[in-house]
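ugh ok fine here u go
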Amino acid sequence: MKKTIILIVGLGVAILLTAVVLVSTLLAPKFKEWFGKEESTYDYSYSMVPTATTPVIPQDTESWIDINAIAGDLATATDTDTSSTSVTLAPIVVGTEGGSNITSIVYVDQNGNIIDPNQFNNNKTTTQIENDNAFDDTVPTSDDNSAFSEYVITPAGVITDYLGSSTVVMIPSRIQGITVKGIGKDCFEGKSIKGVQIPETVCVIEAGAFRNCNKLETVVFKDEKVSVNIGNSAFKGCTKLKNINLPVTPEIGLSAFESCTSLKSLDIKAGTKNIGQYCFAYCESLTSLTIRDDKAKFNGITTFQGCNLSKLIVYCELDSDVEFTMKQYNINTSPITG
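structure:
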């Protein structure tokens, strides 16, 4: 009897559990509808990792218009004083093929304009605007305050090279704290300068200093009373040289003005003791030469080789050694009147 009861109870429990499972299966969608939405499938494991910010790299289509826009923004943020010559260095990131990038540095003025870096010297200031006008007294006598010098100078004060690009060169009397005493050998040779002003501190122009400067038209010595020796071939081949106000020149070297084919007149002051061979050779336009020192010596007719002697007149003191020498070479002379 007991076994029969246990069997009946067990069967009843099994039937009940089966009914519960069946009802749960059939009513599950309704339970979701009644009690809530479907569970999210978001993977919360990512919330354990900090979110990384990926930098935006401009594509290969980055243009100068974009860079100018960036430069304009940078310029707006700078000092608005338009009198300043300072510039802002703007790093611009430009995309390159393969996903890498490079950093370019551009110079930006205060108006937002990108400037060619070649227009700036090492002190990041604008270079002096080229001046083709006549020389004046406003030229600074020293470049001591400049971080970058256009000249190479020795401790003895001799300029050995010119690094600038101006066509009108006004040499200061002091460079980097050193008094300029000489223009060195071949210093300006072949350079495209049209005019040069030489300070009163210079006492020597060495060999070939301005040789073959075939655009040089004007040479101005700031003080004509100083004594300056002019070396061999100092101005040789300056085919456009027309104007030069020589100071006192004790020595004028061999071929100093040879082939200065545009030179028409020259005034050599008292104090000149020696004029070298070929000094005025092939100066085809030379018609007037004033020699104020009656003791000046020439080294033969070769001094005037290739000149048009029929048109050349040498102005000198009457009955002087110079007049005697010129007559020996059948060169026309005339007395100095002024």
